Fold this protein.
Amino acid sequence: MYQPIVSPAYPRAPITEAVIQLRMAADVEAKALEKIQNKLKAAYPETQPLQKFEVKVDQTGGQVNVAHNQQGFRLANADQTDIVILDARNLTVARLAPYPGWEHLRDRANSAWQRWKAETPRHPIERIGVRFINRIDIPVMDDDSIAISNYLNFCPYAAPITDAAMLNFLLRVTVPTYDPQWIANITTTTLGATQVPKHHSLILDIDIFRTAEIPIRDDLLWPIIDAARLIKNDLFERCITAATRNLFSP
């Protein structure tokens, strides 16, 4: 029987972005989005419109026409760490580092969801997504390379082409989880130019999503969103090694 791994509360958690997204089965009107963003202004005073640009070229005269339409809003708190994105189909709530914990993200998402429901038709939810992007900073001496397999169980293999170390990689898989209703996209890559001196950084991006049997009632909806976090934690622990866990401890 599958036994999920419980992830501890790491003192130096590597989370750079955490996201909860609810996608509707039908579009909501722009007026409704404007009402929602007005209700969220107190918590998210920084607001930017989201624009969609379309470029059309007249095939006869060669004239270029550029049209732009407002598609929604990007809202943020004063320090740009808590973010809400509203568009015709999606309510997206994100938290950037420092990550204060699941309860903070969940409560923000639930609060935004209550305001969304109050201003829009009760369209069914067609997709729930819970996504965590982790940056794993690995100390090195000078510009020495690292053995990725020392830090990730989920890592690439390349045939030995030269004696030189791999310069970069991008690896992504889509896998079922221990809960058959949830699917996971797991992506890992190198970060490139890191802002942390004498470190190499790896990205471990875990995106859990569900597209079936999604309830509209809150007393049923939020418990299954909580379950997604446990699935994400299990996958995270299975992707990393003991050496990586040591990086997150004092």
In short: The mean pLDDT is 89. Helices lie at 30-39, 102-119, 218-239, 242-247. The first strand starts at residue 15 and ends at 24.
